């Protein structure tokens, strides 16, 4: 059957696909530019002046373009001169006269690509969302916590899964088990498991999870090995054909 998976996009994303286009997990569907982290320059300490007086020694103004190694502050004395230079190309974003510092922002933009969690066909493109149509099955959860996880579904049988039942081949897999001990959960986390689908879990758990009913669990247990997407915020699980 056809299922639709909603892919959320960050603000100001650039769409890289069209409706009807086939994509897989290696194909970027959107991109977004992110600015570099601000650089805090402790100007008052560097100039050895009162915080309120740093503006007196600054040689550039806010928002003015600045090149790397441009002088941004200069204090001349009888015996010495203190020079503060720009750490990179950029601009002064803010001047804090209480703390005596300036906030410098580089002119460096990083492009982040957004990839689909699974292969499929672009069904619809909306504001902040892309709908991806796939062949598979959809199930509802009863309780959940965490963010969306995608990976191979790995079923581990038994009424309660312990440490010995957790094998090394679970990296990036979504673990499907009826009940899991705290020690087994710690091992799954250490081995890089993507998350948990279960009928019962301990109260304290660091992994993202979706709890399902016994009847839903029984249906899903025969689907081990398929690609899956579990969406805790929506309490939904998608198993691809």
TrEMBL record:
Source organism superkingdom: Bacteria
Name of the protein: RnfC Barrel sandwich hybrid domain-containing protein
